[in-house]
Specification:
Layout lengths: L1 E3 L4 H6 L2 H7 L4 E7 L22 H19 L8 E7 L5 E7 L5 E8 L2 E3 L2 E3 L2 H5 L5 E3 L12 E3 H15 L3 E5 L18 H15 L10 E5 L13 H14 L43 E3 L5 E7 L2 E7 L7 E7 L9 E3 L6 E9 L6 E11 L2 E2 L3 E4 L8 H5 L5 E4 L5 E6 L5 E7 L2 E2 L3 E4 L8 E4 L5 E6 L4 E6 L6 E3 L8 E11 L3 E8 L15 E5 L11 E2 L10 E2 L12 E4 L5 E4 L11 E2 L4 E9 L5 E7 L4 E5 L13 E2 L1
Parallel strand pairs: 1-2, 2-5, 10-11
Antiparallel strand pairs: 3-4, 4-5, 6-7, 8-9, 12-13, 13-14, 14-15, 16-17, 17-18, 18-19, 18-20, 21-22, 22-23, 23-24, 23-25, 26-27, 27-28, 28-29, 30-31, 31-32, 32-33, 34-35, 35-36, 36-37, 38-39, 39-40, 40-41
Helix pairs in contact: 3-7, 5-6
Length: about 650
Amino acid sequence: MSVVAHPDDDLYFLNPGISSAISAEVPIVGVVMTSAEGDGRNVDTGDPDRESAPVDYAGYSEARRVGLRRAYARMAGLPVDHPWKQKLVKLRTGFTVEQDTLKGRPDVVLYFFNLAHRDVDGKKRYTLPFLLNRELDATPTMPSITLPTPVQTISRETIVASLAELIRQYQPTVLRTLDPDPEHDWGATKFVVSDHAEHTATARFTIEAVRQLDPNKSRLPIMEYYRGYANRYWAINLCPALFDEKAKYLATYSGADGEPNPGLPYGHGDYQMGTNPYRSTHMFSSALRYVATSRWMARLPSGELAAFAVLGDRLAMWSERTPASGVWQGPALIGPSGLMPTLAVASRGDGPVHVVALRRTDPGERIDVEAGYVTVSDAGRVSEWVSLDGPDSTDTDRRKQREIGVPAATVDGRGDLWVFVRDFTGGLSCRRQDVGEWQPWEALGRGPLQDVPFALTDGEGLVQVYAVAKRTVAHWRQKKTSGPLEPNHTLKTGMVASGGLVVARTAGDRACLFFRQGADAREPENHAAVSIIRAHREHPNGDWPGGTADLGGAGGIGPVAVIDRLDSGAGDLVMAHRNEQWTVSVSVPPTSGPADRWEPMPGMITGAPALARDSAGRGVLVALGMDGRLHVARQESASPKGKFGDWTVV
């Protein structure tokens, strides 16, 4: 299920995740919150004469819905004019919504809430942000031209309850929406939010709806929150084949795909977009606000592997019944509610596992987001939540506090936990224990940085941390026990794609970075290499001269999963990643080259896979499937060359 503000949001920001799921015959339910009537002129925004075009709010709104239906039909492999069954559905909340079902693929369903703008001093104003902030009691809807829709006025509470009702009805395994706390505009001289206010409001309404779910009665979905306009700040992360696919469906949505015009009086698409979908920088990426990581599995002190994820807003844990048994149990819901999806899982190997997360709280009228963690001693012993606040938690402007980035964490040689997040300045901040006592947040700087840093502890028990900047990777390292983190300026990687960085320990205890190559949207000559997996290995003296190695894997998205190996170089590690078909590809040594090193496994996944060794030394691969369940594969032997068996579903 997806919940978006406007008819093009899922095509711009969520795709190619939507189209790949439809192609794989995964059932899809889309919810569009607003009527998206804009200025009522269905004319290319680049047309110099558009201001003289007639204003037709209802007509432009209907044209956008037509365009979206045509795009979804095309994603399903059907003609763009394939018929839909359209009807009005009155929910138990009393709210009447439009339900459209694709006749040739009845598992593809769209709902339109058609929440309209309101008139203020003769101008149209957005209503969702005012409802979100309780500055309005209710909002009008815009009746459909093609259906006998009643004129309605809907309250904030009814909107949230209606979303919750649809979620309970369909029990989605994966629920996608937009960014509830987008980053600010890095180029502005004052605080300016980078995203559309209705994107933000839609995401927050979705969060409230999910919080109404009772885990004893309803499936808790895997949550995915997608960046909107902030994509433009960072290196693109889709290979040409994937953004060409996005462009194809956006061209259909805008009525610019060359298909016959059906002659509808209001239009057959969103003509404001023009005829060139590539003119928008939103085209070239699909980026999560809470970036997926590949370190969400660890071994418990008792020897069992455990995997952690967020379902709804709750921490879920799967674990082996006995060490290396291959028999798993779960998910068990542990810890507090209010968690956002990305986790940092850290342990020293023989000690407890710390699961660090962001927690969204709502003390009255104010929303706060804090970092914190729980400690898991074994599958049955979980600590209380420990709040770490955030680097901007004392700022009176709560927007700054909520912009906290996703966490990274590691445990040093003394057993102290270190937590890293991006702060409001875009730089990196750290909070660490010192012999078990938590110290204040410390700003390390070097922003603006992409989200999701990566932290590790080397063989001497010293901490290193990495974070992706605009055109390279920033690096800090500790040179002595209890010493500070010092920047290392020798690391030059080139542009890294949005979506994650992983660092593994290799022979000589040398760090090796694994990342996908990125490019600037304004540099089309470099787009062909986007999302190729690259490795960059530290030299024995701790510096980073030289270039990167090409490991292939082109077309995928998100971070690589890697198992540390202290007797090998970068090319002989066990690795896995999500490929362009949204399934997992694995690589085990030996390989003959980047082109054929990756072997695909069946089944679409969400997020990124994770890898770890069990207590018998065998590599274990886990992924969360589109069915919302944990999928586990294990190597046949403890040798790194061992093949992975088939998926087992927990």
